[in-house]
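Can anyone check this?
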Amino acid sequence: MISITVDWTWWVILVFITDLVVRVTAIIVVPRNRRPTAAMAWLLAIYFIPLVGVFLFLLIGNPRLPRKRRRKQDQINEYIHETSEHLDFGTLRPHAPEWFTATVALNRALGALPLAGDNAAHLIADYEASLAAQAKAIRAARRYVHVEFYILQSDPTTDDFFRALEEARARGVVVRVLMDHWANRGKPYYKQTLRRLTDMGALWQLMLPVQPLKGKYQRPDLRNHRKLLVVDGVVAFVGSQNITDSTYNLKRNLRRGLHWVDLMVRVEGPVVASVNAVFLSDWYSETDETLTDEIDLFDVTAGPGDLDCQIVPSGPGFEFENNLKLFLSLMYAAQRKLIIVSPYFVPDESMLLAISTACQRGVDVQLFVSEEGDQALVYHAQRSYYEALLRAGVRIWMYRKPYILHAKSMTVDDEVAVIGSSNMDMRSFGLNLEISMMVRGEEFVREMRDVEQGYRDLSRELTLEEWEQQPLRSTVLDNLARLTSALQ
């Protein structure tokens, strides 16, 4: 019988040295160009669960798109700046507040797109009415239709939308479609949707595809979350709604009876060119086709209104968090009323400070969220901020289940509003490609106020007294989820 003696000493030394190298390397690599909270969360993960922490950091630790893609965005921004520098984008409303002018300049510097006047914008708060309005606009198309949605499903609810696209193609209209790869892959109706687009002759592309075998790969949770439709450069739709049934056709939603409540805006006027610019930039990023010879992007005409509108694109293709900076600028500008609607509200320190500061200035700050969550981690991370918000003086309205209030908007005093695809969470600020539209005009804010009142009528107010009765297990879950929310 042969005995084998293993000298474990060298193995222990090797493990110790490897662990030390990993920890020192993490301190050097992780905090670079990263928020302190995110850096600390990653370091804690790597220190306490080294194998899992390092694996996750290598997989999703880079919050930027590949360098080639970022260069494309820089080229697009430079082109838009040069092309639109001396063009007339309608007559702007007079007597703009100084803070509004400064915010416009900020948005222009970050997202390249100009402020445009002479626009009409009307809200559509009914889910199926929004789909019908978009289908109607598509049926009026004569040259092209540009469709870009995070989730796009050909199901019984959206059948008329797709039939409108088919009819447009039959008339010779060019139909271009962008849909996020990871958000649709493996979901209900995915293959049927692609087959229907192909059969009608639409030109379609998957956004941010995760297809390493085809040489297409980036951090898998960087997603294109935009929702927009452009028809002939004349009419556009932006907002929070995807092209799918209000249940998203998911079994877990059907079991719980969940339905999504969304908000879209139909716009006409020079700002449509800016919405189209966002689509064309994403099309170029995915296909390398510029389309500038085919489409005169800034050949604009006045719309049937006099609203001032500015489109603000944001996402990991930009150097800065454009949407966060827009929101912060408006929060600090608010003098009387600030109303925020966000299904996923996980603020960073700067936003929490801006909101509490607004309350301390005497601003009436109200936040609309859903009573029930569809994503457990985000739901609990969001809840972890309720106590601080309530103590600061924020009124929190919880939209009653089984509905998920998915609209994303903000109104400031009586003159300015923002609507778009961006949630107010760290994912939307740093990881998702989003589109927001800032609007100046009392009549549009009045429309927003009517929608907000409709939400209020279907909500209940959360009080600090009620919140203090939360069981300990909920507090623990909320705090754990809050820590994970910083892993960017």
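Reply from J.R.: I decoded it. The chain has 19 helices and 20 strands.
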